[in-house]
Every structure is written in C-alpha cells, then in structure tokens.
C-alpha cells in the first residue's frame, strides 16, 4: 500500500488572458477514493491534467511524495490519468484497434496487470478488434476504465469514466473499483456528472466551481451538516436567521432553502418547518447552480 | 441485508440498522460472522470506510464484537439487546408521529385505539 501524497500548491492556469484555475491548493492523500465534481467548464479536466503533468501550470507546483511531477518519470510511474476519449478525433492513437491501444497503454505503466485487463474486456464484452474512433461513447469509456484499473498505479485518476455507459455497466464499474480498492488500497480520483449514484463511493468530495476549489471534505460529514428547510416563508426565515442559505425557492407563501451548517451552528428542533437531509447531488445544485 | 439504501438517513446508520434487522429476523444468528466491510461496500456500492463506520457503531453498542484477524461476529444476547433498545425508542420513533398525523386528521385517541384493535389490521 502506498503512503505518498499528491499535492497541488497554488496552481494557476491561464489560457491567453483568461484565468481558468485560480490558486488551487489541494492534497490527495493515500488510500482514499475521491470524487471530483463541478459543472461543465469548472476546470476539472484542466486541473487533473496539470496534476498528472500532461499540461503545464502557469503558476504553482504539483508534487508527489515531495518531488515535482513535471518531467519526472520516477513520480509519473506511480500516477495514471485515464483521460476521456474524444469521439471526434479519428487520427493518431484513436485510429488504433482497441487491443493495440491497450497494448500501448501497457507499456506506459510499470505495474500493468494484463490478467485484469483481459478479464475486464470479457466482463464488459468489449470488441477489441474495433478501432477506438469507431466506438460508441460507452465503449470508449470502457477502454478508459480498463486502462485505469489495469494500470495498478498508486494514484489513479479517471475523468468521467461512466459517460455514455448504461446503468448495468456503470454498476459493474463501481463494483470492480471497490474490489480493486479492497485489494490494493490505492488512491482513486474520479470526476463524474452522475453524482447521485457515485456519491456513496467517495470517501471525500472535492467541488470545483468556476476554477476555484469550493470545498474538499469527507462526504458523509459534509452531508451531515447539509439540510433542506421548507415551510411558511417567515418560519423558514426565522429558522435560518444568521445562517448562510443557498438556492432559495419560493412558491406562494412557501419557501425552501438549503443550508450548510458551520461548526457550532445548530437548527432549532421545535420550529414548524420541514427539515430534510440533502443528497450530494442536491447539495451540489444548491452550491453551484444559479440562484433563481 | 438486501434492502435498498435511501437518502433519508446517513448511509452508515442504514448499514447498522440493516444488520440489526437481520439479527432480529434470524438471518444473522448470534455468534455468527457478519459480512466484512468490503463485502458490504461491494453490495451497496459504497465506500468501505462508510461501511466500517456502520459496523463500528454496532461494536460500540455491544451488538457485534471483533475476533482479531477473522472478522466481526454477533454477540450472544444481541437480539434481546436490540429489541430492548428499539422498544425504548418505539414511542419516539413511531407513536409520536402517529399521534401527530392523527391530530392533524382530527382522529381522537379513542378512534385511534379502536383502529389498533381492529381485527383485520
């Protein structure tokens, strides 16, 4: 089991005049499954590609076990970033047959597990004679999942691994992920838009909003301090006095808000309002969605 | 153990309650081994740390105990203990909400008792 941390220190990324990542400090600790969530364009893929030295940062450094990852093969041998495949690119490596694509991947990862790769190809019923660029979105996702799991890298990063996969295959992926995690205890960072079903997999959740780190917290602890409060508008306002509210919705005399309690804050137990737990997906919408 | 998870409660609390339910229904017997955190994690597609939190809750309350290097086991007397605790909580968890609903529907206590006594209920 590895014991080394992947750390971002003050990462800034600019494309021309546009700053897309703002001063990100983030540390990925060993032996945890992280979920990275953010809206389209929040900077998830840019951040992941910088963390894995596939894209240079404009400012700041990324280190693994204290050493910079940039152009450092010793560090990069421990890291796998299985990128989302682009169906619009029909040349280069995308023109390879899936089995050749996987063979190429095998060369990059010193701990590559061919037995696992072969079994996953069978379980996913993936036609490896097909060219990657001719595959459906779901099949491309299978290829990226196989690479990530078979890499056996200490830190394995998957960018939207379940995009385009049907629900049965997604479930298969989650179970394979947990099996692998149980055996190896390696670190996973997974970005996804299918928050509802993956939320319980994540020991910690990282939320990126408009290029900034909004929060990084133990998922269960985060949800334990999140509540949806609804009822007569005055009553809801009275309960939420002094609390930071998100995503207010009004209909007639009724009002609903989401609150994230800070340490020391509590909700009164006797008020005539409904207080409900909030799922990660609803919390994400409350924190990152538009205020109506 | 094969119940669905809901969003109404923390996952680890649901895990501990499901194990308790299985003990009450003799699906899990006293002195028998309970599924490992990895088994539970896989079954529900949840993080093993969350499953472990649910198991530990039951260890702390004397329902399960750990045999080092082997796993978690159901304590002798666990079934009786769960019954006793749930009976104590019965008023808070069930009766209170029953009375609230009855009051808002205008059902009197006498009517409520008659309903409970109803043969086909």
Provide an overview of this structure.
The complex is a heterodimer of chains A (292) and B (121). Chain A is α/β, with parallel strands linked by helices. Chain A has ten helices and 14 strands. Chain A has helices at 44-51, 73-76, 98-108, 114-123, 137-151, 167-184, 195-198, 219-224, 233-239, 280-288, and strands at residues 6-15, 18-28, 33-37, 59-64, 67-68, 79-82, 155-159, 187-191, 204-209, 212-218, 226-232, 245-251, 254-260, 274-277. Chain A has a six-stranded mixed β-sheet, sandwiched between helices. A four-stranded antiparallel β-sheet of chain A has the order 2-1-4-5, with helices on one face. In chain A, helix 3 (98-108) packs parallel to helix 5. The longest helix of chain A has 18 residues, at 167-184. Chain A is globular, with a radius of gyration of 21 Å. With 121 residues, chain B is mainly α. Chain B has helices at 11-24, 37-44, 48-60, 78-105, 109-117; strands spanning 64-67, 71-74. Chain B has a two-stranded antiparallel sheet. In chain B, strand 1 (64-67) and strand 2 (71-74) form a beta hairpin. In chain B, helix 1 (11-24) packs across helix 3 (48-60) and helix 2 crosses helix 3. The longest helix of chain B has 28 residues, at 78-105. Chain B is elongated. The two termini of chain B are 27 Å apart. In chain B, 24% of the residues are buried. The chains are: A alpha/beta (292), B mainly alpha (121).
Jot down its keywords.
heterodimer; A: 292 residues; alpha/beta; six-stranded mixed β-sheet; four-stranded antiparallel β-sheet; 10 helices; 32% helix; 29% strand; B: 121 residues; mainly alpha; two-stranded antiparallel ribbon; 5 helices
Estimate the strand proportion of chain B: 5-15%
Category by helix and strand content of chain B: mainly alpha
Number of helices of chain B: 5
What structural class is derived from the secondary structure elements of chain A?
Answer: alpha/beta
User: Looking across the biggest beta sheet of chain A, what order are the strands in?
Assistant: 6-7-8-3-9-10
């Amino acid at each position: 089991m590895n014991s080394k941390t992947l750390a971002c220190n003050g990462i800034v990324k600019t494309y021309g005049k546009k700053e897309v990542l703002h001063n990100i400090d983030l540390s990925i600790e060993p032996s945890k499954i992280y979920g990275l969530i953010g809206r389209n364009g929040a900077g998830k893929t840019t951040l992941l590609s910088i963390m894995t030295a596939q894209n240079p940062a404009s400012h700041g450094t990324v280190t693994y076990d204290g050493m910079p990852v940039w152009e450092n093969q010793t560090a990069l041998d421990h890291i796998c970033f299985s990128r989302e495949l682009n169906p619009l690119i029909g040349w280069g490596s995308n023109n390879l047959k899936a089995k050749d694509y996987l063979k190429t991947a095998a060369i990059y990862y010193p701990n590559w597990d061919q037995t696992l790769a072969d079994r996953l190809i069978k379980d996913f019923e993936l036609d490896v004679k097909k060219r990657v660029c001719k595959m459906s979105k779901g099949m491309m996702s299978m290829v990226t999942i196989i690479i990530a799991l078979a890499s056996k890298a200490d830190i394995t990063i998957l960018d939207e691994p379940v995009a385009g996969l049907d629900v049965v295959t997604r479930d298969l992926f989650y179970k394979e992920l947990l099996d692998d995690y149980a055996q190896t205890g390696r670190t996973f960072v997974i970005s996804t838009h299918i928050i509802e079903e993956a939320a319980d997999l994540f020991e910690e959740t990282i939320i990126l909003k408009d290029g900034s780190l909004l929060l990084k917290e133990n998922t269960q602890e985060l949800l334990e301090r999140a509540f949806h409060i609804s009822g007569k508008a005055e009553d809801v306002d009275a309960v939420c006095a002094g609390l930071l509210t998100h995503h207010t919705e009004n209909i007639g005399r009724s009002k609903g808000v989401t609150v994230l309690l800070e340490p020391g804050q509590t909700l009164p137990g006797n008020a005539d309002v409904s207080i409900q737990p909030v799922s990660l997906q609803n919390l994400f919408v409350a924190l990152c969605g538009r205020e109506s | 153990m094969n119940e669905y998870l809901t969003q109404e409660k923390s996952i680890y609390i649901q895990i501990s309650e499901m194990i308790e339910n299985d003990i009450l229904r003799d699906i899990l017997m006293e002195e028998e081994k309970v599924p490992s955190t990895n088994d539970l994690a896989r079954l529900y597609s949840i993080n093993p740390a969350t499953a472990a939190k649910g198991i530990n809750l039951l260890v702390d309350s004397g329902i399960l105990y750990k045999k080092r290097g082997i796993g978690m086991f159901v304590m002798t007397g666990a079934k009786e203990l769960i019954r006793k605790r749930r009976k104590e909580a019965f008023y808070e968890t069930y009766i209170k909400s029953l009375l609230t609903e009855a009051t808002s529907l205008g059902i009197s206590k006498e009517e409520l008792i008659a309903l409970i006594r109803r043969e086909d209920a």
